[in-house]
Amino acid sequence: MKLKSLIIILFITGMTQIANSQPVLEIPNADLNLGIFPQNSTIVHDFWFKSTGSETLKISEIRTGCACAVLPLERKSIAPGDSMKVTMTWNVEVQMGRALIIPRIYTNAGDVVYKIEMRGLVIDEPESSPIISVLPYRLEFAKIYDRDIDSIDFQISNKFEHDLMLRKTSPSSDKYKIILPEVINGLSAAIGTIILNKEYADTEFISYLTFEATDPSNTKITVPIRRKIYK
Prior knowledge:
It is a single chain. This protein is mostly beta strands. It has 2 domains: 25-122, Immunoglobulin-like, CATH 2.60.40; 127-230, Immunoglobulin-like, CATH 2.60.40. Helices cover 8% and strands 52% of the residues. It has one helix at residues 2-20, and strands spanning 25-26, 31-38, 42-51, 57-63, 69-70, 77-78, 83-91, 97-101, 104-107, 113-115, 117-123, 132-135, 139-144, 147-148, 151-158, 164-168, 176-179, 183-184, 188-196, 205-213, 220-230. The N and C termini lie far apart (84 Å). Residues 6-19 have low confidence and may be disordered.
């Protein structure tokens, strides 16, 4: 009887060790809600893939389900405790209404399929948004010969009868500085500003700004940003 109990204990211990030695992928903030954003937008977002198991994580495939999105990998394996930045580019183009894309990540972590989700509401006239609107609804640091736009003011309109506060929810960027008004009075407008950092004056990039208002629905607005050098 004692021998049988010992065998059971050893079996459970062995299975536990095997389970604990599995590779594991962790993706913080894997659900990205962009809120309202304009048609023909390109959204570029960095995700972090973290290997939190005790075995090396190997990524065999990423399926986005759409040619409109890509997630290139700098490498296909991540050592335990290590992490890797994965940049996702989503070209929304002419899509209208509710937009959703869920890339699936296949690894050597058993039958687990990991997912990333990006979603929002695509409209062709963002200024028609019923609560908050932004003009211009695309921000471009354009460099055209000797003319260089390195600072842009944009108007945020509050169509709600009460004052609204704003909170930036998109990741911070070292490429530019964002200045948002703290409060926008009811049925009024205020000015925000975006300033290009000089270190990126000769670099093209694509980014975005998302902020959330304090209306009952916590309306979110995403504004595409890019640096474009015209030659």
